[in-house]
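2024-03-11 09:14:02 INFO worker-7 job=invfold-0412 stage=load source=structure_tokens
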């Protein structure tokens, strides 16, 4: 049986950080990752074909280093937003977006781990 969706790789993993400037210095200046794009509250880094995204945590948000991951983003080989969303929902999977980006596809695996699907050509 062929799977209805085909993942081509992990696009990026998101880590929450308290101090974005400090984290940038560590990941870029020390570990040698390259800045792909940057905003005041997030920093996308490239390390080979994969990425690490650093999101500034809310002031009251607790950081659980070593036990917390915000989400894992997976790149799809093929698919369109509406069809992918419909496929997930028809399998009993709740799909959510994110503030300012309602077409972002977030959902949880059976154990509650948050996943994101990126359509081909989507950043």
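2024-03-11 09:14:09 INFO worker-7 stage=emit residues=123
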């Amino acid at each position: 049986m062929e799977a209805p969706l085909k993942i081509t790789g992990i696009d990026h993993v998101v880590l929450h950080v308290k101090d974005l400037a400090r984290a940038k210095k560590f990941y870029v200046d020390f570990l040698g990752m390259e800045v792909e794009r940057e905003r005041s509250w997030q920093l996308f880094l490239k390390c080979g074909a994969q990425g690490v995204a650093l999101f500034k945590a809310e002031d009251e948000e607790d950081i659980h280093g070593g036990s917390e991951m915000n989400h894992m983003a997976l790149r799809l080989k093929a698919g369109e937003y509406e069809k992918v969303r419909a496929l997930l929902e028809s399998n009993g999977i709740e799909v959510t977006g994110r503030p300012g980006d309602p077409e972002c596809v977030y959902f949880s695996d059976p154990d509650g781990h948050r996943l994101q699907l990126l359509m081909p050509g989507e950043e």
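2024-03-11 09:14:09 INFO worker-7 stage=report msg="Residues 7-58+66-118 form a domain with the 2,3-Dihydroxybiphenyl 1,2-Dioxygenase; domain 1 fold (CATH 3.10.180.10)."
2024-03-11 09:14:10 INFO worker-7 job finished
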